Amino acid sequence: MLKPRLVYSTWKGSIRLYGVTSKTVKICGKCYGADDKMTNVTQSIIDLTGRSLHLQKCHPVGILREAIETRLNSTDNAFKSYNKFEPVVSVYDNFDSLGFPINHPGRSKSDTYYINSDTLLRTHTSAHETECFSQIHQAKETKPGFLISADVYRRDEIDRTHYPVFHQMEGCRVWKRGLQNEHIDQLQKSLAILQSQLAQQKTKIVIEDDDSIEGNPAQAYMSDIEVNLCSQHLKRSVELVISEIFEKKLESMRREGTLKLPSELKCRWIKAYFPWTAPSWEIEVWWQGDWLELCGCGIVQQEVLKRAGFEPNSTISWAFGLGLDRLAMLLFEIPDIRLFWTQDERFHNQFQRGVIDTFRPYSKYPGSTRDVAFWLPPGKNFDDIHTNDVMEIVRNVAGDLVENVKLVDQFTHPKKDKKSQCYRINYQSMDRNLTNSEVNELQKEVVKQLINEFDVEIR
């Protein structure tokens, strides 16, 4: 029997629990006011807010998080770890404090889970940056760096590599500029330690780096030597993390008797753009015949530091952010992101703390495909129903019993001037067989919700 779920009606402007109006949303034990204009978070997403996979020491996401924290603190124990921030944040902390333009696509309801006009489920760990920088500014935290790991939430497509909840790690390091340039000496000494540790890693890293400022300008208040040292310190820190976790993967491959192992790890730095850093980069790793993007980073914009209370131009800082789930899928060779969320012990019993082991599939259950095609209401265009809105209805009805959803066809009838869309849904459980009758009931509920929410006419 299907459980009632909180559904947001995009066009009709009401928050309903299968027809019952709700004025509050309860998340992590706290109640928040809902509103007709912005609330779009659903009960199926709320049910995931307390899982905190990154805190489970024998879960792939938790294993990876702990390995990175340990490695970064092995140089000078400079980072305070924050792993228990609650997922509800303000719009200001999530977007405004980081300099997101008002028209940035990340702010849209099609991409973000809003609780009301002022609060949302964080879309990235950077939502807590200002708070953590403030702890350093106010000397409430003596360590000059911090690491934030947390679950983050985004309305997204449904397939094997996307999930509405995933996990990020954010790292930042701060140097206060002194009259006698003490921070330059600190940077140089810390950088020398990083370089020494990289030289001692078992797996050699070969770096390709275009470090020119063309197309990636530095902030004007920083001297050339500050930009150079801060950039090098950031890059060597990230390289040390990548070297460590890929070395753990190679150890696993050696245990499994893999014959051909790479003798070196090729990485390249690519210029990038992020609203809260300048200059900015991404790092890619050559792995199993392809370049894989692993991490975005850069030197923190002064406006971000000023919002945390630092005096203008008094501080330099770097920051990085990486997705733990994507990296864990790669290193543990996990084929479907839904497996991270399974309660099946056949998954959880495969992993142990501090070890990166290859996932061993325990079974492959067949999928069952259904199509749903409909005419849009008169006067509505294709962009009036966002693909993520359809995905959310399917997700809210079927949860992790859906492998993927694809828009397979859309057209305008030449004579009737009616617009049609067709979505293909593949139902598949990671843990058990689904019966045809069970899939049919799920599909009936999806169709019912599409009609109720968008006034479509089923073809």
Largest sheet: 8 strands, mixed
Residue ranges: pLDDT <50 for 5 or more in a row? 1-21
The DSSP helix count reads 11
Give the overall pLDDT as a whole number: 90
For the largest sheet, list the strands in their spatial order: 6-9-10-15-14-13-12-11
User: What structural class should be given to the helix and strand makeup?
Assistant: alpha+beta
Shape: globular
Assembly context of the chains? single chain
The amount of helix comes to 25-40%
H and E order = EEEEEHHEEHEHEEHEHEEEHEHHEHEEHE
Give a quick summary of the entry:
By secondary structure, the chain is of the alpha+beta class. The protein has helices spanning 43-46, 60-76, 91-94, 129-137, 182-200, 224-255, 302-307, 324-332, 345-348, 387-398, 436-454, and strands at residues 6-8, 15-17, 20-21, 24-27, 30-33, 79-82, 88-90, 119-121, 145-153, 165-176, 204-209, 264-274, 277-287, 290-300, 315-323, 368-375, 402-412, 419-427, 457-458.
Salient structural properties:
single chain; 459 residues; alpha+beta; eight-stranded mixed sheet; 19 strands; 27% strand; disordered N terminus; transit peptide; aminoacyl-trna synthetase; aa-tRNA-synth_II
